[in-house]
Amino acid sequence: MTRHSAGHLTTAAGAIAVLLSACGGSEPGLARGKLIYDACAPCHGEDGAGREELAAPAIAGASDWYLKAQLLKFQGGARGYHHTDLEGLRMRPMSRALFADRGDIESVVEYIVSLPIPDPPPTIEGGDLEAGEAEYLALCANCHGRDGRGVETGVRELDAPSLLHLNDWYLESSIAKYRDGARGVGDAAGTTMRAPVADFTAERISNVTAYVMSLQRLPRKVAAPPPPPLDPVDVDPAILPEGVTLAMAQAGQEIFNGAKGICFTCHLREGTGGPLAPSLTDAEWLNIDGEYESIVKIVVAGVPQPTQYPGVMQPRAGRPLTDEQVRAVAAYVYTLSR
Ligand code: HEC
Ligand code: HEC
Ligand code: HEC
User: Fold this and answer.
1) How many CB atoms lie within 10 A of CB 188?
2) Which of 114, 143, 163 is the last residue of a domain?
3) Residues 195-232 pLDDT 10s
4) pLDDT per position as a tens digit, 110-120
5) How far, CA to CA in Å, does 251 sit from each of 110, 266, 283?
6) Measuring CA to CA, how many Å separate 20 from each of 31, 50, 89, 264, 281?
7) Are 325 and 252 in the same domain?
8) Residues with Cβ within 6 A of ligand 1?
């Protein structure tokens, strides 16, 4: 991507600095956000719909929490850190001109989400829609939602953003960056995202992108149906190991199938298993003997090098689970195959 000159970068970062010092006195909020956005518009467009020739994506269709998180990642070096990520490297200095103590990020994000939602037209031909749909439903829908609108778990750093209203060229380059470690290394959300695309070829990227672009044309604001209620934990308390109670398993069920533990994002609801992680309902174990203590141990340690599945499991699934919560979720897992 040599078509974007480094000179542009320096000028734009300088422009932001000048602009922000000029509006230094104004209150955080929409008006200030609009002023700040004047410095973003040359690349992302007045309407926030992106400019392909600058490789700057549409941002006006994103959620406020996602925009904030990404701006903070650029600022802190968790994004735009890799020497091959020319676009991220270009965006990073822009984020650095925004100041926390002046509420700059909140203000500009408030302005961006006030813009009309863009529908960037497809620019890339090809991509097998059917293959892309199969791929999407198996590997992406779990986190980004069947409709691509993203899923908010209530735990910000692990929420999966909407994939709609983005440019196809940006979707493709982003997936490739996660795959290649040019994006997402070293932060929880990014690491979660890297696993499903770890072995993606260019063809698979193009198929799944074509499918995501097709989702954009579905009618707006169709609420996803709520998930069916969980089956009650139904085991004979007599089979539970010493120190493990039915109440623990019940508490563990909530952790496993909800935002607290996010286990379901890879092992699917009720641990039935999916493309990213094995079933926990059969008595076949890959890494452990399946006894209660071995389950506790693997939840604490995670699985940095899975034997068969691509979805690297972080210690405690990357969640702030207490020892008590780990023991509860392990109790639930214990009951699944018994
Ligand atoms: C010099 C051009 C340029 C300017 C000015 C610029 N950006 Fe960017 N921005 C980019 C590029 C290029 C990317 C794509 C990075 C990538 O591909 O990973 C990007 C990405 C982003 C993203 C990530 C979008 C996503 O879907 O993850 C956000 C958010 C963003 N910019 C916000 C802003 C804001 C807010 C401003 C103004 C303060 C701004 N940008 C100014 C070039 C620019
Ligand atoms: C286990 C959950 C999970 C799965 C499965 C998953 N994602 Fe993600 N995805 C995320 C999270 C979390 C983020 C935000 C990461 C970050 O902050 O960099 C993300 C971000 C993205 C982005 C960046 C969006 C933007 O605006 O820059 C794209 C594109 C994406 N995912 C595509 C996919 C595709 C395609 C698949 C299936 C092949 C997939 N994801 C599967 C959790 C997931
Ligand atoms: C990001 C995906 C992911 C998440 C989230 C996740 N796991 Fe896993 N889990 C895996 C993978 C991958 C393996 C290892 C599979 C392999 O070896 O190929 C695994 C293995 C396991 C095993 C051992 C299975 C065996 O056969 O050896 C248990 C038990 C387990 N996970 C429980 C949990 C619990 C409980 C949670 C939530 C606190 C959780 N996992 C969250 C991906 C995940």
Assistant:
1) 16
2) 114
3) 899 999 999 999 999 999 999 765 444 444 567 788 89
4) 999 999 999 89
5) 38, 19, 22
6) 13, 22, 21, 44, 56
7) yes
8) 8-9, 12, 16, 36, 39-40, 42-44, 54-57, 59, 62, 67, 70-71, 87-88, 90-91, 94, 98, 108, 173
